[in-house]
Amino acid sequence: MAAIRNDYSQGSVSKHILSLAIPMAAAQLVNVLYSVVDRVYLGRLPGTGHLALTGLGVTIPIISIIMGVANLCGTGGAPLCSICRGRGDQEEAERVMGNAFTLLLVLGTALTALLLAFQGPILRLFGASPDTLPYAERYLTIYLLGTLCVMVSLGMNPFISAQGFGRTGMMTVVIGAALNLALDPLFIFVFRMGVQGAALATVLSQGVSAVWVLRFLTGRKAILRLRRPCLRLEAGRVRRIVALGLSGFCMNMTNSLVQVVCNATLQGYGGDLYVGIMTIINSLREVLFMPVHGLTHGAQPVMGFNHGAGRPGRVVEAIRFTFLGTVAYSALCWLLCMACPALLILIFNDDPAVIAHGAPALRIYFSLYVLMSLQMAAQSVFVGLNRSKQAIFFSLLRKAVINAPLTVILPLWMGTTGVFVAEAVSQLIGGLACSLTMYLTVYRPLKAQAALRT
Fold it and tell me: What is the pLDDT of residues 51-85, one digit of tens each?
């Protein structure tokens, strides 16, 4: 019954996408609360809030690396599962999922050991000052001890959504985020644990989410189950997972790279004040981006299933719906950022200097947000249709090739403003290049194939 219910080659394409995208967007939005709520609470600690917030901001690139490794397995394996389901090959779909899980555990264990051993030098390299380093180390040490919980929750949840269980995938993060919301003020203020309390609340909450994911994927309701015979790594399967997952991995790694460059540049030109402002802007970006992430990733199982089933017309319809929804939503976000940047910053910190310098910076950073969201939509098409080379190329282009160098070069003439202008320029070039390439190499050929079949 479950397999018939989740057959995306029948029925309304837009309804199928929304049935996955709405709970996935809600889940991703709630998932951001893990880190954003930490920053809101820590930013309001009496006396030390600004330093605690800035110290937490320095850890963002490391957390992005952890999420990147989780995406390597999750966004690499889940679209392959959807394509296999569309072809009717359930056994191969389960083997892909099992290999992704084992790979996740191996990489997570190695990453935990490496980061724990070198966290001090890494944090200093990433922009921590003598004043903010103690806060960053206290938070990161506890967070790293829960790395496997974080990675299982993030990396395996896409396999739930790929099977069509959008609401179950949403509950993965809703349960954890609700627990995090309850534990944060308890640990931070009541038990007076500060940044360590914020990290502990996050790790415990992600642990509960990880248990939820594993219980579902090993239970009877799942179409594809985690089974012991499927856990043994097979080289060819791992290569396919890694090749497709490199897009999400590169996106997180380049985000981490740019954040490191931004923090170091802002520390040199503006000090802890501007590193704190960038932390706030990144927090807002994460919140505003999540519905785009939900829509684009919710469309991937539908695209992949119909691609595997040989239904190009339905793939075209899915692409068109995804792009229209992305443009409409991102335009509203742009309007919000242009109209009331000070109010958005006030959510995190009420320091007059932070608001005065942060409002114009936020406007510049989000000035071409619509084009960035177009790149996210186009890359989701590449990933959903197993076009790993294009997905990886555009992941690297915007951040590593354009954004990072400009973040170093532009401040030589523009000071701290150059850091935020660099982001806008990368959104313009990367967004147009990726979306136009997708249109010419994927959308138009698929549309031609669909016309021949009618």
Answer: 777 777 788 788 878 988 998 898 889 989 988 88
Is residue 73 within 8 A of residue 241, CB to CB? The reply is yes
Distance CA 11, CA 46 (A): 56
The answer to whether 53 touches 275, Cβ cutoff 8 Å, is: no
Residue 454 has which token pair?
Answer: 């009618």
pTM of the model: 0.71
Q: How far is CA 298 from the centre of its chain?
A: 13
Secondary structure class of 138 (helix, strand, coil)? helix
Q: How many CB atoms lie within 10 A of CB 215?
A: 11
Spatial separation of the C-alpha atoms in residues 314 and 305, rounded to whole Å: 10
Task: Look up residue 163 and give its two tokens.
Answer: 């099977």
Using CA of residue 383, residue 385, residue 386, residue 389, what is the dihedral sign?
negative
Cα-trace Rg, the chain: 21
Q: What contacts 97, CB < 8 A, 6 or more positions away?
A: 77, 81, 159, 217, 224, 226, 230
CB 280 within 8 A of CB 354: yes
Burial of residue 125 (CB within 10 Å: 0-12, 13-18, 19+) is middle
